[in-house]
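ARCHIVE RECORD
Type: protein–small molecule complex
Small molecule: iron/sulfur cluster
Source of inputs: curated submission
Record status: active
Notes field left blank by submitter.
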Amino acid sequence: MESTAKFTKSMVECSLLDKELGRPFKPGARREATPEWDKDKCVRCGLCYVYCPDGAIYRAEDGFFEADTDKCKGCGICHRECWFGVISMVKED
Amino acid sequence: MDKFSLFVPNFLPFKEYFVPEKNIACSGCGLALAIRQTYKALEAVIEKAEWVKAGDGKLFAKLFDKSPMGNSEPSLLRIKKPGGELIICFDNEAGGSLEEAVKKAMPAIAVAEGFRYVATACPSYPFDLYEKVKKGLEAEGKAYIHILCPCPVAWQFDPELTVKIGRWAVESRTFPLYEVGSASAYHLTGTTAKPRPLADYLKPQYRFAEISEQQIADLTTTVESDYKKLTDKIQPE
Ligand code: SF4
Ligand code: SF4
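STRUCTURE (tokenized, with ligand):
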């Protein structure tokens, strides 16, 4: 997976970041459904990767895309934006 | 072998700058998406970027007092650069009013205040957004970019629609994408021959659940006349 940059002090002032460092937060914990790729239909264009708000999608070694379940929040944007209907949102029990 | 040679991420740096462990953004956050894209464009100068509040200092007071956004506090990212600075406004319409949803006065105010590069952008158009942030960095003097960030929680829509809602805002001409370069030359970046009905943009948002057909008709008139005023500023090439 591509490396993530180190957070600089100024970047941490962003309102979307948890500044109370004592409160651990795992984005994946909020997920209600998980995206699943149908590789037969996927053209590996990477659009799903571009639109994921949480940068959860990465390119695996075979060139196909996958979601990092620790980061994915299950929003379903990737599912809506894929041109070929490759991604389905699978509910977790 | 790839069926298509188009590989979308080639247009953007692959490196991620906004994938923090403690990102408290909600599922489908348009603001998080916009920041993720913006940080990619800021790559080289990311150390110089700082988050500021609209209420901080006189600098922004001028921009925000005159606009319907006066009540909401958008997140602003400020990047100092030689001879000026780039200010990026992440507008998620936290004020929530209809007026705020259709009237975006800030870019015009920034032009009047002598900003050398002014643009509107939306994360539904990632490459456009990326280019504009780059241009804002390169422009001589002050630059301002207004980014519309759909918010599934405040606007009350299904989080999977975040990117679509942004696109509908642009296609309905509620939030036209344009840039203003040197000599205040306006330039539309992306045009729609036939606008999408305003209802397509407003109806999926439950914050406007009570809106009447008459209100939509009136707003359509406002949107169209604002759009006309904008296109009137464009010099024929
Ligand atoms: S957008 Fe669809 S076709 Fe493109 S890489 Fe993602 S899943 Fe595959
Ligand atoms: S469901 Fe949302 S968070 Fe999860 S991979 Fe898709 S776009 Fe990213």
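CURATOR ANNOTATION: Confidence is low (pLDDT under 50) at residues 21-25 of chain A.
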